Amino acid sequence: TLIDKVLGREDTRSLTMNEPHPHSWLDAGAQGVIGQPLDRIEGPLKVSGKATYAAEYPAQRLSYGVLVRAPFGSGTIRDVHADAARALPGVIDVVTDYPSFIRNPQQGGEQKAPTQGVQKVDYHGEIVAIVVAETFEAARDAALRVKVDYEPRDGAYVFAAHRDQAERPAPDQIPPHLAKGDVDAAMADAAFTIDATYTTPSQNSAAMEPHASIAEWRDGTLILHGSYQMVASDQMQLAAALGVGKDQVRIISRYVGGGFGSKLGIAPESVAAAIAAKRLQRPVKVAMARQQVFDATVRRSNTEQRIRLAADATGRLTGLAHETLASNLPGEDFFEPAGIGTQFAYAADNRLIDHKLVRLNWLLAGSMRAPGEAVGMLALEAAMDELAYAVGIDPIELRRRNEPAKDPQNDIPFSTRLLIPCLDRGAELFGWSDRKPQPATDRRGEWWHGVGVAAAVRSNMLQKSSATVELTTDGRAIVSTDMTDIGTGTYTILAQIAAETLGLPLDRVSVHLGDGAAPPSAGSGGSWGAGSSGSSVYLACEGLREKLAKAMGVDVEAMTLKDGRAIAENRAVEIAELVGDGLSVTGSIAPGKQEKLHRQASYGAHFAEVKVNAVTGEVRVERMLGVFAAGRILNAKTARSQCLGGMTFGIGAALSEELVHDPRNGKVVNRDLAEYHVPVNADIPQIEVEFLDERDVHANPIHAKGIGELGISGAGAAIANAIYHATGVRVRDYPITCDKLL
Ligand code: MOS
């Protein structure tokens, strides 16, 4: 049609964030849908069982794989004896040449070439073979009959025994070492000092949906239904693991029952399913048991963090050091970056941030929700609380006195920073002024009561991300991207962005996610998902707006899009009449100079009230409040849910979550939800969440920043600080269990 010729049916629109981007169609808000607390659009599918998760896809001639794991911590395999397993009825095959390097590559990038069969085992439970059978039960039975013959090697199984051999990891995107001035001198000259060491244990993401994959090869291409957070990079990892081209792997992750980092990189079950499916020329499903998720995917590293604070007589910091020991397997580069938030949290002229790794034969360590801040703020914010008591000033006032005008590490401006307004607003809502300054003064019967506060900081990141938005002839919009919704609300916010920018009612927008055949996105990780994928959808819609204005013959600035109609110059035209045979624009966002010119982060303040039983040491969280500033809030309900989830994680980190490693072989001892204690409903009090109004024009064109990992940052510290206020007992070894308080 003529319109198609004038407009160009398919187009692209790209933006690299080199400049601030103050203009946003979302601010016009004609449709009035952005920011609204809308229910998740896929919610009814989930609660009615109609949303198909990875393990639930039907397949012809489906077979079942069960992973065989090393029953020792460190050693060299001599042989895998599988004859007894193969002889069982229903067993199809036992694959013993599972490639040895696949642990759960967390950071993307290139993989080493596959090797044939596992020779060297580095941790208890590492995958060494896969049994495939006609039924799950037969496969599970057979897996127990596979015998692994091995030569044991010495392993490092106890953190304390090897901590002195810690070494600094190689420089990465997150620098392991930053230094400015002289902290030792600042400590020597200070009016007040804190020098305290905090420890946090290994933790598990404990996503509700265990890892599962169904693999099927069709004409040389692998179709893998899996439960993953970052489809595009996971496809590359899987292709490298299998030794095939990256366009020979298509991952589909339409619904993901939580990830929290454990599904950032591929886990062993996807590789196992893919290898077995190729060998057998039929589809293979591998669904991990909960125990396997705990001991054969990935953990958050334990940490030992030494914080030193040097302050003048008024509490102003002159020196700040945050030195972290974390652990990982030999040869693994990932380190828990506990000092990452400390880079910019507070002013201090003399600064030191350092990370070292202790090499242990424990399960792989990788990213878990807010890698760095989640445990780093458990230390830094407790230390700040200790300093407030030492100086004798209110902990909020201490933070006010240490508010930096500029990023103290890199001497660049903050894009936005509403930390103090979050603390002030929180204090007002929480009734902070009622707090008695002295600890252990409020006892009611058996219970000591106390309140605590902590700051939240979380770096904001933008990642390359693409999405296609199509306007159909009947005036509907279809959003397609390989972006995932891991329970965060991505389906809904992308629909809201498209509906708002295109002036469509929400029910005229469909969102298709999680298919590796669609334009590659940033995926869900590092709290960059909404800002990055949302920007790509926004840019596509911005391109479509221009096409609609052109079709109408008006200036794009003079046109309002609302309720499916384009309105300009006293004319109102149905959008459907302007799209010809349909229009499609692919939007792409990429990070640019803005992230180097401004320190970008989101901020918040946590307030907690606890009671501690004087007889048993039991801690009950009575109430919590979080006030956050994270740029534009795209959906008030899903954003609030993210923060509720993060704060709940914080309660677990403070009070109950701890992976225990057997000192004889590193094995994860408590590897299910009965033994690894995540908070349950009865542990969670009334939690209030409020967002401050904010836009960040340096972050991206939708002015939104990350939320998912902000809610956990500092949450546990507020509880630890409340426990100290209640009891006068400072426990620096998380989790703060009853025994440590008595
Ligand atoms: Mo997050 S730990 O980057 O899923």
TrEMBL record:
SMART domains: Ald_Xan_dh_C
Transmembrane segments: none
Example GO molecular function: oxidoreductase activity
UniProt domain Aldehyde oxidase/xanthine dehydrogenase a/b hammerhead: residue ranges: 48-154
Protein name: Xanthine dehydrogenase
Organism for this UniProt entry: Sphingomonas endophytica
